């Protein structure tokens, strides 16, 4: 693996040098060219990615599978949720790492990218061998997921409020 300093990756802040060495051992580098789908919404996955070089775009389908809305006559209506670059070493796929379920969004490389990748099996093997380190990592990932849920809840409130106001105006 490249000479990347794992202590500069926010999700690993607070880990000792010995712990960082153990974490580094469960990751491998993966490169993807621009235009490559790294993670596809709806597909099953169990890998977590850390973007260390490049830019990615995260998007989500605007309609549930099989749903049709005449006003959205695009071939594949998608909403861009975020564009991430390597400056903050963002993490994605942590939910699938925990539950091995369907991916909740699509992540596409919009430039050539390099990722650090670990699998559910490698992650939980480390957690079993090093329970204290496993708790630290799971707590960090849990906090990230909790922050995402809080943000999503706030967005749902904004959207439902805007919808209620819009419907109220159209009825009046």
Task: Tell me what you see in this structure.
It is built from four helices and eight strands, in the order αββββββαββαα. The chain has 172 residues and is of the alpha+beta class. It is globular, with a radius of gyration of 19 Å. The mean pLDDT is 89.
Features:
alpha+beta; four-stranded antiparallel β-sheet
Helix and strand layout, with pairings?
Elements: H1 17-24, E1 28-32, E2 37-39, E3 47-53, E4 55-61, E5 78-85, E6 91-92, H2 94-99, E7 106-109, E8 113-119, H3 120-129, H4 131-171
Helix pairs in contact: 3-4
Class of secondary structure makeup = alpha+beta
According to DSSP, the number of beta strands is 8
Give the DSSP E fraction (strand runs of 2 or more residues): 25-35%
What is the global morphology?
globular
Q: What letter string, H or E per element, gives the SSE order?
A: HEEEEEEHEEHH
The residue fraction in helices comes out at 25-40%
Overall radius of gyration: 19 Å
Neighbour order of strands in the largest sheet: 1-8-3-6
Mean pLDDT: 89
What is shown here, in short?
With 172 residues, this protein is of the alpha+beta class.
């Amino acid at each position: 693996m490249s000479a990347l300093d794992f202590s500069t990756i926010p999700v690993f802040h607070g880990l000792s040098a010995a712990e960082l060495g153990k974490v580094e051992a469960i990751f491998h580098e993966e490169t993807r060219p621009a235009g490559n789908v790294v993670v596809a919404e709806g597909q099953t996955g169990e890998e977590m990615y850390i973007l260390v070089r490049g830019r990615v775009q995260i998007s989500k389908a605007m309609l549930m599978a099989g749903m049709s809305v005449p006003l959205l006559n695009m071939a594949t209506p998608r909403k861009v949720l975020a564009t991430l670059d390597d400056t903050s070493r963002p993490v994605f796929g942590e939910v699938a790492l925990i539950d091995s379920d369907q991916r909740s969004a699509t992540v596409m490389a919009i430039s050539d990218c390099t990722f650090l990748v670990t699998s559910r099996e490698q992650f939980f093997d480390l957690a079993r061998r090093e329970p204290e380190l496993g708790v630290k990592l799971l707590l960090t990932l849990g906090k990230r997921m909790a922050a995402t849920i809080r943000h999503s809840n706030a967005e749902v409130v904004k959207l439902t409020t805007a919808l209620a106001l819009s419907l109220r105006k159209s009825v009046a």
